Amino acid sequence: MTTLRTFALLAATVLARVEAIEAADWDAAQSSAEAALAKMSQQDKVNIVTGVGWDKGPCVGNTPAISSINYPQLCLQDGPLGIRFGTGSTAFTPGVQAASTWDTELIRQRGEFLGEEAKGCGIHVMLGPVAGALGKIPHGGRNWEGFGVDPYLAGIAMAETIEGMQSAGVQACAKHYIVNEQELNRETISSDVDDRTMHELYLWPFADAVHANVASVMCSYNKINGSWACENDHAQNGLLKKELGFKGFVVSDWNAQHTTDGSANNGMDMTMPGSDYNGNNVLWGPQLTSAINSNRVSGERVDDMAKRILTTWYLLGQDAGYPAINIDASVQGNHKENVRAVARDGIVLLKNDEGVLPLQKPGKIALVGSAAVVNPDGANACVDKGCNTGALGMGWGSGSVNYPYFVSPHDALKARAEADGATVSLHSSDQTNGVAGVASDADVAIVVITANSGEGYITVEDHAGDRNHLDPWHNGNELVKAVAAANKNTIVVVHSTGPIILEEILATEGVKAIVWAGLPSQENGNALVDILYGLASPSGKLVYSIAKSAEDYGTSVVSGGEDDFSEGLFVDYRHFDNADIEPRYEFGFGLSYTEFTYEELSVTSTVTAGPASGETIPGGAADLWETVATVTASVTNSGEVEGAEVAQLYITLPADTPSTPPKQLRGFAKLKLEPGASGVATFNLRRRDLSYWDASAAQWVVPAGEFTVSVGASSRDVRLTGSLTA
Ligand SMILES: *[C@@H]1O[C@H](CO)[C@@H](O)[C@H](O)[C@H]1NC(C)=O
């Protein structure tokens, strides 16, 4: 015991972990910030809130050092899955893959490792994680950077990631705030969202981020109700700082600031990069000084900006012993193990006819598709991943990073086949010519197809960020048909940033399995082989619905200047359920190599109807975060092999609640079970999980009446139901 303790103490010292942040820590950091503020000149204050300009420092965002208080040149760096432009760092899996695991331990570890690498590079503020876009539009270019389309799941993933990152000592940045749902016209479009939809969908995961003590929030490019997100008083001062009690700072997205006074007076605290990309148009700096001097912006407001920025620096302990900035530092450690685990456990098995998977040591394997091999020009050949050539591991844009190495499907499959004395014949193109020759005499044919998307400053194969359609790229349907025509044991592997329409593939005879491999980053092939060969049973579940047609989603990229969010709360499964449209594969769906049975639902509740109350803590009214009901269910692995099940809990609010989605995710638990073993899935429901936003009262309210509790294997595969009453 003593030895164990000593070791734990030693490990804690070496990693210099920041303990879980509490209210007293914010108070202490604010006191330190006030003391420092007292020593700063007005010029110092203007400097600490104004970036030095694009490409004028070592990081994507920098503010100047303030010598009077020993404050360093602050380094802000992309992004949500690793260190952008770094050469010694890990390419972690995108957020969407992490969410697809539904494994809070893996998600948290991913956050810790991200934070460790950022700190190792001397980065003070790491620009992630992402909860906006939430993903209401399946074509949305940047959906893959976030954690899927459900706010509850995204919120849990935000909190785990932020706590993980910040425990390593780096400041996290929750972005993009808010309702930034598409790339087309992203810098001009106005997202006009009603108050209830704002609270129940888009603000929800940001509330989790604030509750997890996130240090900073990035305001987005778009307008909200006609005013820029970074100049929107209601969004920044009202919702974020007042209602959610956010004590950190709001940093602009890069070039998202439009006026000197409007941004300052409406809640923005730091401008980045500080000028436009040509070094012109500096809206703070000297212009902020004149605004203060002519009383258009108050001195108190600028003090508040500086205090918020200093507070989080102290909060994370960055004022002592923080490493020097070196974006190229060698910081990977053993972090690739997390990449492989997330890549693997985020894989969703959609179809598996006649038990074609897992593979039983086939002697002859055909592998088809340009996405089966690394980009012939190199895994990092395209700047910011702006191409769809070769195997896909992440989307493109500022949320991408360099791969330190890349294992393609072919690399991993060949290694595995060699160990078995098997052969792999490769057709590494998307042309159907020549497919038959490779596929026809193989025991099994594996065809890899893709769909890609990214940030709008890069256009890839005619897709300007958002996808133009939801079909596979490179004529993937035709490629699959050619393979399946030649081989009756065809396995389709999909690497994609979001849903694609699978109807043609499903209608193709010979397609026995579909493996939704998502975005596995640098461990692409290894994760796939782990699943194909049954080294692990698939345990990922979809974090968006796969529809039968693109129209079924009811949302698509909006052209023109305004998105009125008329679908309201009814996005993805909330819409499919409400409109009674059958998806092909529903939100939360995923097969396994084993089977799970559910029994013994138990519900205990102390919840009372009525509005939320209590003081405002980070995340909103205190009692919103209290557990008011607990649901348990017993889950048994009733199949033959080890596996993991993501048990999900959906809540149906009382029938007379104003227009509400039929079911909403409000709990999940991933249980790893040996064959025959049982475990208990425990779902703790907080007051917020049983509330809706009453827009007229401007409050979260638990409605009176009977709530239905549905527990099961997906949003439609309900195995047990119960109820509770408020
Ligand atoms: C936008 O306008 C709607 C409708 O008036 C309102 O409910 C909402 O609170 C406004 N949102 C913001 C961020 O101003």
TrEMBL record:
GO biological process, one term: cellulose catabolic process
Main location, first listed in the record: secreted
EC number: 3.2.1.21
Keyword Transmembrane among UniProt keywords: no
Protein name: Beta-glucosidase cel3A
This protein's pathway: Glycan metabolism; cellulose degradation
Segment forming the signal sequence: 1-23
Catalytic activity: Hydrolysis of terminal, non-reducing beta-D-glucosyl residues with release of beta-D-glucose
Domain of life, per lineage: Eukaryota
Subcellular localization, as worded in the UniProt entry: Secreted
UniProt entry tagged with the keyword DNA damage: no
